[in-house]
């Protein structure tokens, strides 16, 4: 089945241009330059012709207002991802030495890679641990929660993977090693930090995972006041051992947005007591239960509307603590429990992912750490080391969306969820200023959009992501299946090009990146 009729007469007018142009081929630029002059005259004539074009039915008008200052600025490593600490239990099954995997990670840089998760609170460094005949499992999800140890070599190989792919590692230290008085015993953590420093590793840190849920998983309770003291101790350790300029993030709470506000309350009390020892407040977010989620849930606006409420509730908690600090979604995906099989790793998962990136950036979330790069049904890279659709969505985001966030109002905010940022330098044509409008169309039918008040010489480049089926593992860019080139390079991203005054057709169930070349907003001049 194909829902999508993307071509209309408009594509054919510019077919030559859209078929020869590639962002990834610098050599084509000079050819393009001379072509552009000639084309401009043609396009000018065409745009005059187009002025008389009728507005198509089902067209939504989008008004862009020039802004002097950005709405927000996110981290340069806004889109980041996790490698769950549980992977370190089986180092030889982790593909961090595989060239295909290294290549896929490299295409996502710059980013943070967070090595964290439930197993972080079971992890020891170079320690001989007592053997258990029966491995303890988590009452929450049945996962292995036995203590385990990693060696120098293991730690080094994870770091080398990050270092070689241009990623910045964040390592989650074990918060459950305790002294008799209840305070954190940092002896083992100090060995990791000393080892890292001894090998001149540049990296960042955190302590513990979902501490507000320790009693459910480990039958242990650590109060937020205590964890705050432990973070002060860790900050002091990092400062004295050569990591003064590294960031420390926490407290990694979950259950934000639940009726009882347990996650937010934990974070608030933590912030009230931690003496500014963290650089960002971190929390975890999922929309759905991986075991129950259905395909409809992945395209239902009610699912999407859950995140704004969670962010607002967390913001209130931060405000109530009296601190001025950014939040960071440090572990997040569509569905918890490892993701929903056949959904979280398919085309349909991209809608929640892209909307999360857009909404988070707009509402002041500093960085978003996707669970996960590898492992589980929510991973961006499959067990066969082929990229899943969300990997491609992320690559497109990294290419077309900068950290400078602007404002846009969608005329159909439930089903047409749009965001706008300045276009990054690397995606500009001849340094002509540009903005990138991106987002998702959840309508069952093609939706046309029309930008009001654009300068006549603006050219709109459309990059539409679609699929033959919502549950397909394949994803298409302007109707061509996305595949890496045989040498591992990205394929050229070929746009469909429109004039400023044309209707842009957005396919049903599509993700779209629209680069408006020639839109010059002062907020984007660097
Ligand atoms: C990290 O990478 C740089 C070069 O990119 C290299 O000089 C350095 O030795 C690496 N560090 C480690 C600990 O591997
Ligand atoms: C794991 O290590 C922690 C910290 O030393 C300890 O409290 C806990 O009892 C250990 N768990 C098991 C199952 O041995
Ligand atoms: C912390 O743990 C180390 C290693 O197990 C132990 O030698 C030390 O006595 C502990 N510190 C305290 C204060 O209990
Ligand atoms: C918190 O910071 C203040 C001011 O720098 C300092 O006096 C105090 O000792 C710190 N508290 C802890 C628990 O380290
Ligand atoms: C938090 O405080 C900021 C600044 O004081 C304010 O603009 C914002 O509306 C508050 N947010 C919430 C959710 O209370
Ligand atoms: C996906 O989920 C299924 C069912 O829970 C599980 O058997 C499978 O191992 C998971 N796949 C991955 C890659 O984790």
UniProtKB/TrEMBL annotation:
Where do the TM regions start and end? Answer: 31-51
Q: Which UniProt keywords apply?
A: Membrane, Transmembrane, Transmembrane helix
Pfam families tied to this protein: Glyco_hydro_79n
The record, for InterPro entries, names: GH, Glyco_hydro_79
Any one GO CC term of this protein is: membrane
| PANTHER family attached to this UniProt entry | HEPARANASE (PTHR46145:SF4)
- What family, per the record? Belongs to the glycosyl hydrolase 79 family.
- Name the record gives this protein: Heparanase
Source organism per entry reads: Cephus cinctus (Wheat stem sawfly)
UniProt lineage: Eukaryota, Metazoa, Ecdysozoa, Arthropoda, Hexapoda
């Amino acid at each position: 089945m194909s829902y999508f009729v993307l071509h209309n007469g408009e594509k054919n007018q510019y077919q030559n241009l859209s078929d020869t142009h590639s962002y990834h081929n610098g050599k084509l630029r000079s050819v393009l330059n001379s072509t552009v002059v000639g084309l401009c005259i043609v396009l000018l004539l065409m745009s005059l012709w187009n002025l008389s074009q009728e507005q198509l039915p089902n067209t939504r008008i989008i008004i862009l207002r020039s802004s002097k200052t950005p709405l927000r600025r996110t981290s340069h490593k806004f889109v980041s991802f996790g490698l769950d600490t549980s992977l370190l239990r089986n180092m030889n099954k982790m593909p961090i030495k595989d060239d295909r995997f290294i290549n896929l990670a490299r295409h996502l840089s710059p980013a943070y890679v967070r090595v964290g998760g439930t197993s972080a609170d079971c992890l020891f460094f170079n320690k001989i641990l007592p053997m258990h005949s029966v491995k303890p499992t988590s009452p929450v999800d049945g996962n292995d929660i036995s203590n385990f140890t990693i060696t120098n070599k293991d730690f080094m190989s994870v770091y080398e993977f990050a270092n070689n792919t241009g990623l910045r590692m964040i390592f989650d230290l074990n918060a459950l090693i305790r002294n008799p008085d209840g305070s954190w015993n940092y002896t083992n953590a100090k060995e990791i930090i000393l080892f890292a420093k001894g090998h001149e590793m540049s990296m960042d840190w955190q302590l513990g995972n979902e501490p507000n849920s320790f009693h459910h998983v480990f039958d242990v309770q650590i109060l937020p006041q205590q964890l705050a003291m432990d973070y002060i101790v860790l900050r002091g350790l990092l400062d004295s051992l050569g990591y003064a300029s590294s960031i420390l993030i926490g407290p990694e709470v979950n259950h934000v947005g639940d009726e009882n506000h347990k996650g937010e309350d934990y974070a608030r009390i933590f912030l009230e007591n931690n003496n500014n020892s963290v650089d960002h407040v971190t929390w975890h977010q999922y929309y759905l239960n991986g075991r129950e989620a259905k395909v409809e849930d992945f395209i239902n606006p009610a699912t999407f509307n859950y995140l704004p409420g969670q962010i607002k509730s967390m913001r209130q908690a931060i405000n109530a603590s009296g601190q001025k600090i950014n939040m960071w979604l440090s572990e997040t995906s569509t569905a918890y429990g490892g993701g929903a099989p056949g959904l979280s790793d398919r085309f349909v998962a991209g809608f929640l992912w892209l909307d999360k990136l857009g909404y988070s950036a707009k509402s002041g979330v500093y960085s978003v750490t996707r669970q996960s790069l590898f492992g589980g049904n929510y991973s961006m890279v499959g067990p066969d080391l082929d990229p899943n659709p969300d990997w491609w969505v992320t690559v497109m985001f990294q290419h077309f969306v900068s950290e400078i966030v602007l404002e846009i109002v969608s005329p159909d905010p439930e089903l047409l969820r749009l965001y706008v940022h300045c276009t990054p330098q690397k995606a500009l044509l001849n340094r002509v200023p540009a903005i990138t409008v991106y987002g998702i169309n959840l309508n069952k039918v093609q939706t046309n959009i029309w930008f009001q008040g654009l300068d006549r010489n603006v050219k709109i480049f459309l990059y539409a992501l679609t699929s033959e089926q919502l549950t397909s593992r394949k994803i298409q860019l302007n109707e061509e299946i996305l595949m890496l080139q045989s040498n591992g390079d990205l394929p050229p991203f070929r746009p469909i090009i429109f004039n400023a005054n044309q209707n842009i057709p957005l396919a049903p169930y599509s993700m779209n990146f629209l680069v408006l070349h020639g839109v010059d907003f002062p907020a984007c001049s660097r």
